[in-house]
Design a protein that fits this description.
heterodimer; A: 369 residues; alpha/beta; TIM Barrel; Arc Repressor Mutant, subunit A; 2 domains; 3-stranded antiparallel beta sheet; 23% strand; globular; B: 601 residues; alpha+beta; Rossmann fold; Elongation Factor Tu (Ef-tu), domain 3; Alpha-Beta Plaits; 13 helices
Chain lengths: 369, 601
């Protein structure tokens, strides 16, 4: 099992909390960028040689903002050089207000079979304050278009002036669409983003309030039939995101494009976030990587544990043994006693108790060297 | 008796900030001893901490040649001295190596607490005192009034006192001439057996211990077999020399001279400052009067953040101790902090400086506990013990009574601050003794105060209530019986020994509440709720709660950027490693010191 991530660094305007590689007003570079992207896809084809790709994910930026032909081209390029499974999950991030029937036709042609729609909140004035480009109505229109497709929706908690009641309204609104999967992310104000000022001015809900919203979300979504399979991800049974799960299972993946991260052959590497630097490097047949790290020994094991503990399955002992040919409980015997009271154990696996999943850093760092 | 007419040994004494180091630099500059380009900002303050804080802690001698107006050339040995009350002891050490002292008085500030304290020290040592009025270029300078103040308060004739600006290089020549004219030349006692005073020392990795000496009688040179009086050790001198200001080897040092001696002394404990050196083969019969053994008055626990660095900490303390006879330390251990040392200091500044030097010069991360004083505990079985570590206070049932150290404080202030100062002293359980007007602008208030109140936040209180105008000097005068109690802090039901304090019973409630509040702020939230309780003899007097952590997760979607996630976790782990553990509660190092910084207002 392996995945491919494609980064689309274009958007109409930058959201106030966004610190991803995404640039408004750079559409003129799209043609050049995708040319480079295709080249990069080809150049790295041997890295996943012999591996089956069963998930492709287009993230951004706003992938649905660019001409759909580029998406089609990217999938074709991948299929040309990689062994993509027949039933692969191919996801496209979509922003309400940026798609139409025509685009959908092309996406269909490309083989996109899953859409991840960024609603964030039902509240129009809040959407505006976050500098989102859409309204709540745009979301409904978008979901109307996507009827019959496998869709996921993103919502955010911890936004300005948000309360539990507001979060409930957002969930209710999101579920007006035909949704199989929901991601609920807590806002994190990163230094350098416009929203950071609001964070410094304590205009954002504090961590207790966010925890309140989160706990509500977990319970409320469970009532609605969406179970938590990872800290921030909820799904109807059978609709878990394979792409996400691949990350948490420590599966291999290649990331193409600006700022994209990869994990392959026990090496983690990341591309530059500067668009001109990326284009220049690829055109000259250089690597666009600005970071690369070999993962060895205990570090591999720690990563496996840290990632799997994010999920509701936790660490499955047999999977651990298959990966490392050693036993989890033996490898972590010195550290486990400090955290056992927060864990739930069966014959097959060990996971963080539900009530502690949202304070998991405290547990995970205990398992670190 | 014959004199060494061309030698002048002197020091400069002053209240802190009156311009001592600046004048020292000027003198060095005027004698041309050090090329301008070699001069660091203030040459004598060579430790980083000294430069940053603008204070002098260490003594640093400098030898200079000065061509005077009489046409003769003189050797000046200047020994710089610390200005802070904590280091009175070091001042007295350097005074013993001199015949004269230049007393600097800031002509805008006038006589201050340490001006007087230092003058008394100089008089005790029979030094000739040369008053100098500094900072005459300041708009607020009032040299005539200050001259009169010096005459009235101290009784020194100021009619010929140079009026200078060390900063702007005004009238420095007058100071130099005054030194030639007024500082007595040392006596020529070259023919007598060797008798030299070790007034300071430090450890050099190549030469071993370097002893700063003033030769009183006789001669010392390479090859001389020397004997120390107090420690009764013998060494063969390897090198002697002078401070120019860097070590400059010389053939010999003779009576009246100031210089250094090295003798392959490997152990820093083999030499004690204040000891007398003599020639083993031609010994003097009587040692110089030794220094009064200086007793530390403030104590605090010093622990390595990383428990495995215990030995490094020990080495560092030993090295500091070489140059600092006043520093004491004994191994200590604490439930919360593990193995470390109970250290004794001359005062709060001394404590801060040692802590800072451990961190900067020795690259150690340390945790320190709240400072304490030494209490006398009279037990019901008739024994009397001294307790400087609150966690070592015996069971109250076995205590008949307790006594605490009392100081006599002299506070110099402009009259408008008398009210606020009296309020402060009242709050600090002070006993009013006296108030004297030095002139219309300056008043001395005298109080008896418990030392344990001074080490809490007296300095800050005094500074803030007098806009920094008041100065303060004190001496320990003895012990008074007092109603003292041990205040314990409990975290999650367990007493944290390193946070215990001995306080007056009337202050216990207020202090306990303030500390509990402070701890609530500094202890991070953890997986469970942590009750913080202040208690006296098991009775809880204040309570706070650190709520359980509810959100600590990397919940944002970084896509496949696992590296970033890991880095954030690693950073968090680093922070956690620095925490101390008491049971299952994690306590940050700053919790132990933060309780000092509680504003009592």
């Amino acid at each position: 099992m392996a995945g491919i991530y494609i980064h689309i660094p274009f958007c109409k305007q930058k959201c106030t909390y966004c610190d991803f590689a995404s640039y408004p007003n750079q559409m003129a570079k799209a043609e050049l960028y995708f040319g480079c992207l295709y080249k990069e896809i080809k150049a790295k084809k041997d890295l996943l040689k012999g591996k089956k790709i069963d998930t492709i994910y287009f993230g951004g930026g706003t992938p649905s903002y660019v001409d759909a032909k580029y998406i089609l081209g990217a999938v074709r390029q991948i299929k040309n050089y990689y062994n993509v499974a027949e039933n692969a999950e191919i996801t496209l991030e979509v922003n309400p207000g940026t798609i139409d029937r025509q685009k959908l036709e092309i996406y269909k042609l490309a083989g996109i079979n899953r859409y991840s729609v960024g609603l964030q909140t039902y509240n129009d004035s809040l959407l505006k304050r976050l500098n989102r480009i859409h309204t709540a109505q745009d979301y409904l229109d978008c979901m109307e278009l996507l009827k019959g497709y496998n869709t996921s929706v993103d919502i955010m908690i911890g936004l300005m002036d948000q309360t539990v009641e507001e979060v409930k309204k957002s969930i209710d609104f999101a579920l007006k669409g035909d949704v199989n999967h929901i991601s609920v992310y807590a806002l994190k104000a990163e230094d350098g983003t416009p929203i950071y000022t609001q964070y410094l001015n304590a205009e954002l809900p504090d961590s207790d309030e966010v925890a309140e919203m989160y706990d509500f979300t977990v319970n409320y979504l469970a009532e609605k039939g969406y179970y938590r399979y990872e800290v921030s991800n909820f799904a109807k049974a059978g609709f878990e995101s394979r792409h996400n799960l691949n990350y948490w299972k420590r599966g291999e993946y290649l990331g193409f494009g600006l700022g994209a991260s990869s994990f392959c052959l026990e090496r983690r590497f990341t591309n530059t976030e500067k668009i001109d630097e990326y284009i220049n490097a690829i055109l000259k047949n250089y690597s666009a990587e600005i970071f690369s790290e070999k993962i060895e020994g205990q570090e591999q094991k720690f990563e496996f544990v840290m990632l799997n503990l994010r999920t509701n399955k936790g660490v499955v002992f047999s999977e651990y043994f298959n990966a490392f040919n050693s036993h989890f409980k033996q490898d972590f015997k010195d550290k486990l006693p400090y955290v056992l009271e927060y864990m739930e154990e069966t014959e097959e696996s060990i996971k963080i108790k539900d009530e502690y999943l949202y304070v998991q850093n405290q547990i995970i760092i205990q398992l670190m060297d | 008796m014959a004199k060494k007419d061309n030698i002048r040994n002197f020091c400069i004494i002053a209240h802190i900030d009156h311009g001592k180091s600046t004048l020292a630099d000027r003198i060095i500059e005027h004698t041309g001893q050090v090329a301008q380009r070699d001069m660091e900002d203030q040459l004598l303050d060579s430790m980083d901490i000294e430069k940053e804080r603008g204070i002098t802690i260490k003594l640093t001698p400098v030898r200079m040649l000065y061509k005077a107006q009489d046409g003769k050339e003189y050797i000046f040995n200047l020994i710089d001295t610390p200005g802070h009350v904590d280091f009175t002891y070091e001042v007295s050490r350097s005074l013993r190596a001199c015949e004269g002292a230049v007393l600097i008085v800031d002509s805008s500030q006038g006589v201050e607490a340490q001006t007087l304290a230092n003058v008394y020290l100089a008089l005790d040592n029979d030094l000739e005192i040369l008053p100098v009025l500094n900072k005459i270029d300041l708009p607020s300078a009032r040299p005539d009034e200050v001259a009169k103040e010096v005459e009235d308060v101290i009784g020194l004739d100021c009619s010929e006192a140079p009026r200078i600006s060390a900063k702007n290089n005004i009238n420095i020549e007058q100071v130099l001439e005054s030194i030639v004219k007024n500082v007595p030349a040392p006596e020529n006692l070259d023919d007598k057996p060797l008798k030299a005073l070790i007034f300071d020392s430090y450890y050099d990795n190549f030469k071993g211990v370097i002893c700063f000496v003033r030769v009183m009688e006789g001669t010392i040179k390479a090859g001389t077999t020397i004997k120390t009086f107090m420690s009764s050790k013998t060494f063969d001198v390897v090198e002697v020399g002078t401070f120019d200001p860097h070590l400059q080897p010389k053939a010999e040092l003779t009576s009246g001279e100031v210089g250094y001696v090295t003798a392959s002394i490997k152990s820093i404990q083999d030499i004690s400052v204040g000891d007398t050196i003599t020639d083993l083969n031609n010994p003097t019969q009587v040692a110089l009067p030794g220094y009064k053994k200086v007793a530390p008055v403030v104590f605090s626990g010093v622990f390595p953040v990383d428990g495995s660095k215990f030995n490094d900490l020990k080495e560092a303390l030993l090295k500091l101790k070489l140059n600092d006879a006043a520093l004491t330390f004994d191994a200590d251990n604490s439930i919360a902090l593990g193995f470390g040392f109970r250290c004794g200091f001359l005062g709060l500044l001394h404590m801060e400086i040692i802590q800072e030097r451990l961190e900067r010069e020795f690259d150690l991360e340390i945790v320190t506990t709240a400072p304490s004083v030494a209490y006398k505990v009279y037990k019901t079985d008739g024994n009397i013990i001294e307790v400087d570590n609150p966690s070592r206070l015996p069971d109250t049932a076995t205590i008949a009574k307790m006594e605490e150290p009392i100081i006599k404080a002299s506070i110099y202030t402009p009259p408008q601050y008398i009210g606020p100062i009296m309020d402060l002293c009242q709050e600090k359980r002070g006993m009013y003794l006296d108030m004297v007007y030095l002139d219309t602008n300056r008043v001395t208030l005298t109080y008896n105060l418990p030392l344990n109140e001074i080490i809490f936040d007296f300095f800050d209180g005094l500074k803030s209530r007098t806009k920094g105008y008041a100065s303060f000097d004190y001496e320990l005068i003895g012990y008074h019986e007092s109603q003292l109690v041990k205040l314990d802090m409990m975290l999650n039901g367990e007493v944290c020994d390193a946070l215990s304090l001995i306080v007056h019973k009337d202050k216990a409630y207020e202090r306990g509440r303030a500390i509990a509040e402070k701890l609530k702020q500094v202890i991070p939230r953890q997986m469970f709720e942590i009750p913080i309780q202040a208690s006296i003899g098991g009775k809880v007097i204040a309570r706070e709660t650190v709520k359980a952590l509810r959100k600590d997760v990397l919940a944002k979607c970084y896509g496949g950027d696992i590296t970033r996630k890991k880095k954030l976790l690693e950073k968090q782990k680093e922070g956690k490693k620095k925490m101390r553990k008491l049971g299952s509660v994690e306590i940050p190092s700053e919790a132990f010191t933060s309780i000092l910084k509680i504003d009592s207002e």
